[in-house]
Design goal:
It is built from 11 helices and 15 strands. It is α/β, with parallel strands linked by helices. The strands form 3 sheets. Strands 3, 4, 5, 6, 7, 14 and 15 form a 7-stranded mixed beta sheet that branches. The protein has a 6-stranded parallel beta sheet with strand order 10-9-8-11-12-13, with helices on both faces. Helix 8 links the parallel strand 12 (248-256) and strand 13. Helix 3 crosses helix 4. It binds NADP nicotinamide-adenine-dinucleotide phosphate (NAP).
Length: 340
């Protein structure tokens, strides 16, 4: 079967299209899944660029969606033909956060979904939402579940609250859609006025260009009559956290998700303390979070925003588009089987 491998020290030019042995039939408790789609995350990009201490020859990509071809003895949750989507932490099934690294994450610590067939424990998948294409389902594993956990699980978002989302990447656009669907007021930022128009079309009530308005935290305060927002979906890290603390209300919640501006730096701790805000880090979520999210998507009839789709073998081109930053929402890979 076809697969992609990356080579250390990393780099898009080192991604290889290879033939690897078929993984065979599932053992007890396992499922065999034909993978039809994956989606790109910033994490996957860091892995293939050699920035995540992953192994030489690893098959990349954390997200995978496809169809169950066979189930091993004892598997009752799935039957052949079911549409499924992978989980980010295959061993974190439910309960409190248990994981602080990527040792068990497909496409990083273990082989991922840039391949045509996998055999994995059944608990490494959930059902995909009814009515979703495989490409749409593949956007849920990382970006979707992260937005869900940030706002709904950790944030306890309620109708009437306000949410600030930073930028227009995969996580932020999911968060915008979820917040809007939940009846929240949404403020979105972007470096691009064209993307901000699209944010408004998707449901953002107010928009700010963070390039032309570097003091966007102050602008958020103005837009909320000096109160600040209830929740911030913080994907920037050290370069944006100061403005996010400014933008959040006293007692507000900042979901610390991303490190787009770097992995360490100055944080205005005194302001965070004075404003008595809750700054909560998170990495994606559990299988239970994903199951709850899938159920919510079916009821709310929300569909992810897919910017572009590439065939599996053009994975390096897909990452180049992500690196250039022109995308809005998700970039996906669709496999030959999905296009047949
Ligand atoms: N903790 C977790 O569980 C988790 C899960 C998923 C992702 N992440 C992290 O979250 C971040 C975003 O991931 P992603 O997959 O959504 O990335 P992505 O799809 O590649 O999105 C990147 C977007 O972020 C925006 N951006 C870049 N610099 C920014 C800045 N200084 N201020 C505001 N926005 C900025 C840009 O939007 P515009 O073009 O509109 O300016 C860019 O298009 C990454 O750091 C990633 O590692 C964490």
């Amino acid at each position: 079967m076809k697969a992609i491998r990356f080579r250390l020290p990393g780099g898009l030019e080192l991604l290889e299209n290879v033939e690897v042995p078929d993984p065979g039939e599932p053992q007890p408790g396992e499922v065999r899944v034909r993978v039809h789609a994956s989606s790109l995350n910033y994490h996957d990009l860091n892995v293939v660029l050699g920035q995540m201490r992953s192994a030489d020859g690893r098959i990349p990509m954390s997200d995978g969606a496809g169809v169950v071809e066979a189930v091993g003895a004892g598997v009752t949750e799935f039957v052949p033909g079911d549409a499924v989507v992978s989980t980010f932490f295959p061993q974190w099934l439910e309960g409190d956060a248990q994981v602080a690294d990527f040792a068990t994450t497909p496409g990083d610590g273990v082989d991922g979904f840039a391949c045509e067939v996998v055999v994995r424990p059944a608990t490494a998948f959930t059902h995909a939402p009814r009515g979703y294409s495989h490409a749409e389902a593949a956007t849920l594993t990382t970006a979707g579940v992260t937005a869900w956990r940030a706002l709904i699980v950790n944030g306890g978002l309620k109708a009437g609250e306000s949410v600030l989302v930073l930028g227009t990447g995969g996580v932020s656009i999911f968060a915008l859609q979820l917040a809007d669907a939940m009846g929240a007021t949404v403020i979105a930022t972007s470096s691009s006025d064209d993307k901000l128009v699209r944010c408004r079309e998707l449901g953002a009530d107010e928009v700010i260009n963070y390039r032309t308005e570097p003091e966007w935290g102050k602008r958020v305060l103005q837009l909320t009559n000096g109160r600040g927002v209830d929740h911030v979906v913080e994907v920037g890290g050290p370069g944006t956290l100061g403005q996010s603390i400014r933008a959040a209300r006293v007692g507000g919640h900042i979901a610390l998700i991303g490190v787009l501006t770097g992995v360490g730096g100055e944080v205005p701790t005194a302001m965070l303390m004075r404003k008595q805000q809750r700054l909560q880090g998170l990495i994606v979520g559990s299988r239970r979070h994903q199951m709850d999210f899938v159920r919510a998507l079916e009821v709310a009839k929300l569909k992810p925003v897919i910017d572009r789709s590439f065939p599996l073998e053009k994975i390096a081109d897909a990452f180049r588009v992500q690196q250039a930053g022109g995308h809005f929402g998700k970039i996906v890979l669709e496999f030959e089987s999905a296009r047949a």
